[in-house]
Amino acid sequence: MVTTAVTVTGIDELRKKISGYSKKTEKIVDKAMNDTADAVLLEAMRLVPVASGTLKNSIGTNLEYLHKIIYADADYAKDIEFGEPIGGNKKTQNHPKRATPTGPRPFMRPAFQTQAPRLKEFYKKRVKDA
């Protein structure tokens, strides 16, 4: 019986390199996600119906590492995005011009649907710049 020994050198260096790539890739993905969140934010601000500017000014982002939130925190944002409930909202239900509920006028969902696919584009650009 012949025994053959194989010696592998450099495995520790390889592990470090692979680990470095995953951290670098994570950082690139995070930056691409920031770019995408910014694009969604700008598109939502472009699409939002504006009467007084309060709703538009309530649109913002919370950009944590690998976790991005785009929000509109005006108290009536959901009524604009999804439509008012039957009977209107409580503040305007007795107002003659606002007694009839308004339909949805989405601005967040279309912004996300049109801009989120750009993540791949932003990722490629960030990889090129790295």
The portion of residues forming beta strands comes to 5-15%
Please state the overall shape, judged from the principal axes of the Cα atoms: elongated
Helix content: 40-55%
Extended strand count: 2
Mean pLDDT: 84
User: How many DSSP helices?
Assistant: 5
The oligomeric state is single chain
Order of helices and strands: HHEEHHH
* Poorly predicted runs of 5 or more residues: none
Class of secondary structure makeup: mainly alpha
Q: What is the gyration radius calculated from CA atoms?
A: 25 Å
Can you list the strand order of the major beta sheet? 1-2
> What is the distance, rounded to the nearest whole angstrom, between the alpha carbons of the first and last residues?
52 Å
Major sheet characteristics = 2 strands, antiparallel
Structure overview:
With 130 residues, the chain is mainly alpha-helical. It contains 5 helices and 2 strands. The protein has a two-stranded antiparallel ribbon. Helix 1 (11-47) packs across helix 4 (108-115). It is elongated and about 95 Å long. The model has no long low-confidence stretch (mean pLDDT 84).
